[in-house]
Amino acid sequence: MKNSSTKNIFSFDMEVDGLYGVSFAIAATVRRGGVEIASFEGRIPDSAVSDEWVKENVLPALGDMEITHNTSEELEEAFWAFYAQQCIIEGEWGPSFDGDNIVCIAHCGAPVEAGFFRRAVERDESRTFCAPMNLHDVGSLLEALGEPAASVDSYVEKYRLSVPFGGVSHHPMYDSAVAAVVWEHAMARIAKA
What we know:
By secondary structure, the chain is of the alpha/beta class. It has a single domain, classed as Ribonuclease H-like superfamily/Ribonuclease H (Nucleotidyltransferase, domain 5, 2-Layer Sandwich), CATH 3.30.420. The chain is built from 6 helices and 7 strands, in the order βββααβββαβααα.
């Protein structure tokens, strides 16, 4: 079994209409040894968003992120296909999350990102053992290190890290990339301790 520093990192972020509404923008980066090896970006029309805070704070951050799907379910199913390609293996008892070779992370992944896996399994029971065990939380890792859990941006600034995406917070690709960079750096700190 590999330790987490030698596994691929699957980092993803979803933007939803409020904390429990429909997904309207999703992105993921898959990294090996600090280098992106695969990615996903998808978005549905802004008309799916009704939450005023999301309209004011998230939609502007999406910039020119391309509309790729018509509905949240279509978007989530396309993301599931990407996730499955990157993270699921066929084993003796059927498909399951490949925890030996990949670690799945999100920054403050509940309720949004964790909720996605519940919806995906509710749509198709054959996915029951395919969600990550565990969905690792970058915020919890930061808190364990004595860092502010809610802000990956302050961690990036403090340690002068480079994020390989030119967006801003609330753009799901930026949020995925920054979470991966912070995870890698924080895990390296732990390994040195």
